[in-house]
Amino acid sequence: MKTQNTTLRTLANGIAIIAVAGLFTVTLQAKDYQMTDHTIRWTGSMPAKTHEGLLPLKSFHADITDEGKVTALTAVVDMTKINVTDLEGGKRDKLTGHLKSDDFFHVEEYPTAIFILSEHKDGKLHGTLTIRGVSKRVALPVKVSGHPDRGWILAGDFDYNRIDFGVDYQNSGFLGFVNAAKSKLIDDMIDVSISVKVEPKA
């Protein structure tokens, strides 16, 4: 009888452990979400003025748990559609064309910028950012707010050093010294503000 009771207790404990483990697994399981709206605003500065514009996402995929933890994320930015919003007419077109040229983002050769998540920890998305073919490890502060059934908003502000990614006047050839001097007039840091809304996939 004693042996039977011990066996029953052992079986009950085993079932309890499996149940708890099952609940834990369900809690951490991530859902697949699709992007429904987004805004990416960039700001670049010079001593006498500041320019700003928008960048569109070409694609965005995210897996997020019910607790708002991002377990997977890949964002692809369409650099061919970078624009300027603080200028109009010919001035806007000139600056936009300049940003797309090989002096800066060289969109003909590098049409996209990509961020791939490796870990969501301490309020930051840690991962690899690739711009102009150069990949760097980054940690982007992003707040995740919302509800698993209604969707989430991922929003944050950060900056990056354009020189680290080769986003610079190309200083070769006859105009090398002139371009190097021009580059010194532009702040190395580019500010980025991002907001992405995602909803559960049907």
Please tell me about this protein's structure.
24% of the residues lie in helices and 46% in strands. With 202 residues, the protein is α+β, with helices and mostly antiparallel strands. The protein has one domain: Lipocalin (Beta Barrel), CATH 2.40.128.110. Strands 1, 2, 3, 4, 5, 6, 7, 8, 9 and 10 form a 10-stranded antiparallel sheet that branches. Strand 1 and strand 2 form a beta hairpin. The longest helix has 27 residues. About 14% of the residues have low confidence.
- Identify the CATH architecture: Beta Barrel
Residue-averaged pLDDT: 84
Number of strands: 10
The low-confidence runs, each spanning 5 or more residues with pLDDT under 50, are 14-27, 171-184
Tertiary shape: elongated
Order of helices and strands: HEEEEHEEEEEHE
The total domain count is 1
The CATH topology name reads: Lipocalin
The CATH first-level class comes to Mainly Beta
Short description:
With 202 residues, the protein is α+β, with helices and mostly antiparallel strands. It contains 3 helices and 10 strands, in the order αββββαβββββαβ.
